[in-house]
Design goal:
The structure is a homodimer of 378-residue chains.
Chain A (H helix, E strand, L loop, with lengths): L5 E8 L2 E8 L2 E5 L1 E4 L11 H6 L5 E3 L1 H6 L3 H6 L3 H4 L6 E3 L3 H7 L1 E6 L2 E5 L6 E4 L1 H11 L3 E3 L11 H21 L7 E6 L5 H12 L5 E4 L8 H11 L9 E3 L5 H9 L4 E4 L1 H6 L3 E4 L2 E4 L19 H4 L3 H9 L3 H27 L3 H14 L8
Parallel strand pairs in A: 4-14, 5-6, 6-10, 10-11, 11-12, 12-13, 13-14
Antiparallel strand pairs in A: 1-2, 2-3, 7-8, 8-9, 15-16
Chain lengths: 378, 378
Amino acid sequence: MSQDFSFTLQATDGRARRGEIFTPRGTIRTPAFMPVGTAATVKAMFPQDVRATGADILLGNVYHLMLRPGAERIARLGGLHSFMRWPFPILTDSGGFQVMSLAKLRKLDESGVTFQSHIDGSKHHLSPERSMEIQHLLGSDIQMQFDECVRLPCSDEEAERAMRLSLRWAERSRKAFRDEPGRAIFGIVQGGASKPLRLESAKALAGMEFHGLAVGGLAVGEPQEVMLDMLETTLPHLPAGKPRYLMGVGTPDDIVQAVARGVDMFDCVMPTRAGRHGLAYTRFGKVNIKNARYAEDLSPLDPESTCPAARDYSRAYLHHLVKAGEILGMMLLTQANVAYYQALMAGLRESISQGRLADFIAETRAQWEAGEASSRPQ
Amino acid sequence: MSQDFSFTLQATDGRARRGEIFTPRGTIRTPAFMPVGTAATVKAMFPQDVRATGADILLGNVYHLMLRPGAERIARLGGLHSFMRWPFPILTDSGGFQVMSLAKLRKLDESGVTFQSHIDGSKHHLSPERSMEIQHLLGSDIQMQFDECVRLPCSDEEAERAMRLSLRWAERSRKAFRDEPGRAIFGIVQGGASKPLRLESAKALAGMEFHGLAVGGLAVGEPQEVMLDMLETTLPHLPAGKPRYLMGVGTPDDIVQAVARGVDMFDCVMPTRAGRHGLAYTRFGKVNIKNARYAEDLSPLDPESTCPAARDYSRAYLHHLVKAGEILGMMLLTQANVAYYQALMAGLRESISQGRLADFIAETRAQWEAGEASSRPQ
């Protein structure tokens, strides 16, 4: 196992865990939310503003980066951290998920996946070995095994085939991973919506030398209760001493529920994508800023936020910017959303330390339901 | 005349002038470049970043703001400064120019212009009186008279008709303007590309009680030499003690040439619009960042710039962002461009004070022509 990468549990509350992942590029406070920096940018945000929201780590996408500007090019330019001016930890996905969701003319076999770029139709091949090489070229701090993620619902036969293939690819990924100081690799539990398959996957991966384990193939169309069910089945069989990462999740409520079940890390495009479409996540729930009720609302999204975008600009101004299609509207809402997600994670961490996670969750959900009216003078 | 608004000449070099306009909201160092904040935002920039480039004053557009979100609404929300979080001076145009260039189904008569919104087809009327009312509602520091701006080339008959109408509208605008402390109104010289018409317009406006005079109807399609010819005809007949504003101009070279002829203020969408289209203005001339030569260029736009966007990000990264259509590419290039324009104005002001404007212009143009290669190790 690599040196200079470690996970320390600091507190637990029920199954929820608070901890820290140490890497040479910085400490990741868990439970952690990783903003998504798909194409070497967290869309519509300056890197220093991402940092200022409290983000300890970003996610980068192998699929997008291998196509444009290219992994070898990023390596020649000094690696992804320097390229995008984010000197803190970066986790990279393996490319498998995006190949399935974005690429054209996919052909999957034991060796890997051949596909055409959605950008220019050029032909590419991804395998466990090539994915590890790309993630190494990017300079990733936490690499993900190459896996196959199936959409839900799917047949158990299909889920089983993909899960077993992902296990074989896990072994090949682990073998191809270069153990260098500070670099880590996570395995990925698959198995669709089948408890026996999830269990088998988790147990097999727990026996391999991964630095952390992820749960993949969830939040891909199934109801929240199915996702939580799979987590409850899977997590008890993952090593307690390693970080647990729920991939691609999710809404604030998804995150809160998953933290209560023992998840340590999350990533999702939701706060950034919503921010580009006029939707704000706040302490008071979701705010559709395009709604006419905000046209003359001088209150900010959240007067108590430490984020300038949420605290200093009126809803009336945000409403105007979004209605007018102004880029500044996307910039402000994205920043406010990422800041809210980070504030939520900070609240979860703090409440775990204090042994009052259940109360925190109840208060948080009550505030979401009560909406912004609860914070205004009557 | 209003109190609390004054113009002080600090130095001259040939016909070029360095000065300061004092307003209650702040001092405007001239020659000044005003970034354009069309719809209550300098596109793709946070207001504090606009300020950080060195901008003392912004321009707001009556046409856009009256249509969305509406002048009365902005007034109810506390005025444009508070709405867009720009507490420093704002100059508003009168709406005349945009009505002619953007609105549908225009009908112009002595009273004003009736037109349909380009946004939703709604019908509106602008007159000198309504334009002054709107600019007052917005809370503008420097209001512009309502005028008619004709496109060049046009017949002398057409230019004369519009110029005389604009003079009558100047009188009505001046009368409708509310003399309140700190508020100013500028007249606008028209007359197309005709020296006698420009002269007549300038002399007539010089006799009215305006706080400053603008030259309008230039940089609307004519060659630079025609524009400069019109300036040389017009400016000597404007009062030396009042600021002179060349509307909608222009390229860095247009600005340098106009400053040398005695212009004090400029506005133009060029730096912001170019920044959204992959074009950077730098000390080394224009840089089309999409050019393949920048794909692996680790140098920034300008290592000596004080602007983070120009100094801290590699051309390779900017190239990638723009090729990938990323919003951050627009954010960075816009910031870099506005910063370059402000740095150019600072250089012009300094060289006027030092009596070396001609040398500064020669050096600046030589640097533009030599390009970035001149700054790199051989």
